[in-house]
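Hi support team,

I'm filing this because I wasn't sure whether my run with adenine finished correctly. The job status page said complete, but I'd like someone to confirm that the output block is well-formed before I use it downstream. Pasting the exact inputs I used:
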Amino acid sequence: MNMDEKLHFADLSDQLLDWYAGAARELPWRIGPGARAKGVQPDPYRVWLAEIMLQQTTVLHATRYYLEFTKRWPKIEDLAGAQDEDVMAAWAGLGYYARARNLLKCAREVSALGGWPDTAESLQKLSGIGPYTAGAVAALAFGRRAAAVDGNVDRVFARLMALTDDWKAAKTRLKAVVEDLVPEDRPAEFAEALMDLGATICTPKSPNCLICPLREMCAARQEGDPGRYPIKPKKQAKPTRQGHVYILLGEAHTVLTERRPDKGLLGGMLGLPTSPWSGESCVPEFPSGANWCELGEVRHVFTHFALTLKVWRAETDETLRTTRAQASDGLPSVFAKALKLAL
Ligand code: ADE
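And here is everything the job wrote out:
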């Protein structure tokens, strides 16, 4: 942070923390500012689990999974000892399944170490923990003076500083500023306050500047159009892929499923049989059974492409893997959508 920035943001952390004392969201993985003031620290396992789930996922969607995981696996040792398939099935619907594989790997690494490392630097050596998560866990669970800079914090500071630099350079600049602003004595609340400001006031669309505790020091607001920031390069349109998904219904409410290979998209997850997914349309090659009929299409957007699958259904008198009642529970969203169409 340069001298101008230091002066400009001299009151930022005090104002932010004052606001947070009255505005903090109550979330199941938080212990709240009151408990923190008494020196209580949250279980690092719960902090970390929430952070991994909240990557690429809304608070609303992640909460149900967080509650389910902590009920089923209350301590990190419980998760470390779980069966891979159980954890992957419990993760189904959260997406980005490499996160779930790394989650298990990390739980086992921490168990083998006999406990959590407690600095951002050492946390980053664990599977699935990058700079953001390391900073968040170090600050939230261990009270370390570390910054947790994710897309929300990027947006808040791109506005506060009215950054017009190339987006990569802008992020580097704002990260240095956030790191300098983390207060020695309350790094956890500072991180949580920034998350809440980004989620409730400095939102991506129509930020609510009138009630923002930082409005007086916000350069974007002074310019008059804070929604203009962050200025990011235009996203490329996603390529599309297509294919077929086959739903074979058997005796006793069963459905044909298969475990997907560990490597690759939806790796290690339970799935429905499909054709390859490609840019070109292909003819269906049905697994077995007879009287296949086409039910319609489902669409799903992955990180790098958008997928359309034609959904086919047939029946057989065999008993197949997975009962129908539970079927969509353990399945990634794209398959749950297809199954819904068929049942
Ligand atoms: N977004 C990322 N981490 C979060 C957290 N711990 N609480 C609320 N929102 C978040």
